[in-house]
């Protein structure tokens, strides 16, 4: 069987590896535009901030290793230009030489990810503007930071990538402003949780401009719509992601309402010989079953496993997505899983909320931190609908417990009953998760 995979980073590297495990005799070819394969995209902000000192440490595998160990032919600096579904072939161009070639497939997997959106900035700004999506973006940005040693930077966008960039610029000593056109940072979270993160950013020297837009950039002066002027040396734009659907669209594959490539529970597109996974693919929400796209690494890797299994004859289905996520922001961690207040309101779902504020573990133990845990649940069935945690310690563990509880269809009563490991360094005899369960009774 000939299998072609388009995209060689998160989903592409994993799906091809899994395919080799399941199908020892298949001819597998992976086409990737970037100069590296399977690199840890999520580590890029920390390379810029100097916490990770070598960008090569983000690259865990090379095409040579894939060939030697797995007999998978990875062609980097190659771009898939066109899919011909009738002849089951892909037109591929070598970006370096310009040569093209047509490759046949029996099964095709699309994992082309997304492209960073560019912010709308009137005129032609005379200062550098960076986005961070590909390995090459990081190389360029890192070169600039090293050679120019900028004093002031502006981040546009207060989502995951924007806040991580702001933290990393601060650790380089860069005076940092952040603009978010929504009235708060991390707008995916509930407003009170965003508020805690905003305080933390300001405490750490990030000047926030919330509910504002850039009007103009004139040789280093950025003007906002409220008249504020900010002197900056560079702009880092983190204003979202466009799923890379061009190939799929031109091939006539279905595109769903979230803008991602439509898939069934086996990650098949509207053509049963073509699969789509990762940031470009549309899945379903765990609770509502409605179309949902979660452009995060867990989804890409899980979908890769499901698609590879199905190509090999397996029947494991992709369940709905919870959108579980986490981020570090200076001394705080913010995690969430399931539905937020906004999502629940949009769905007209009835819910009640428990907020529990405590220490992460025994208060007398030296290493403990503040933790705010918030859980939304259905008052009739007591099913858990979503949770958010922000704190100095232990937010990750509580969010992961609750994501597991949702998946296991546990209720708020079960949260009180989970027998959680306790010793003073880790928890309390009544863990915050247990307490949230008790408080809801
Ligand atoms: P990608 O990993 O982006 O791979 C797609 C590849 O396909 C790219 O190399 C692209 O160039 C290539 N491609 C596109 N079109 C073609 C074509 N026509 N021909 C050949 N190649 C093509 N997620 C988390 O869960 N946690 C995090 O902490 C986190 N941090 C992140 C930080 C940053 C700065 C960024 C940018 C992303 C982060 N993510 C994080 C998101 C995560 O990296 C993505 O969800 C994941 O990489 C998606 O995998 P993918 O295979 O769909 O796309």
Automatic annotation (TrEMBL):
<dbReference type="Pfam" id="PF02852">
    <property type="entry name" value="Pyr_redox_dim"/>
</dbReference>
<feature type="domain" description="FAD/NAD(P)-binding">
    <location>
        <begin position="1"/>
        <end position="302"/>
    </location>
</feature>
<comment type="similarity">
    <text>Belongs to the class-III pyridine nucleotide-disulfide oxidoreductase family.</text>
</comment>
<dbReference type="InterPro" id="IPR036188">
    <property type="entry name" value="FAD/NAD-bd_sf"/>
</dbReference>
<dbReference type="InterPro" id="IPR050260">
    <property type="entry name" value="FAD-bd_OxRdtase"/>
</dbReference>
<keyword id="KW-0560">Oxidoreductase</keyword>
<dbReference type="InterPro" id="IPR004099">
    <property type="entry name" value="Pyr_nucl-diS_OxRdtase_dimer"/>
</dbReference>
<dbReference type="InterPro" id="IPR023753">
    <property type="entry name" value="FAD/NAD-binding_dom"/>
</dbReference>
<keyword id="KW-0285">Flavoprotein</keyword>
<keyword id="KW-0274">FAD</keyword>
<protein>
    <submittedName>
        <fullName>NADPH-dependent 2,4-dienoyl-CoA reductase/sulfur reductase-like enzyme</fullName>
    </submittedName>
</protein>
<dbReference type="Pfam" id="PF07992">
    <property type="entry name" value="Pyr_redox_2"/>
</dbReference>
<feature type="domain" description="Pyridine nucleotide-disulphide oxidoreductase dimerisation">
    <location>
        <begin position="327"/>
        <end position="427"/>
    </location>
</feature>
<keyword id="KW-0676">Redox-active center</keyword>
<dbReference type="InterPro" id="IPR016156">
    <property type="entry name" value="FAD/NAD-linked_Rdtase_dimer_sf"/>
</dbReference>
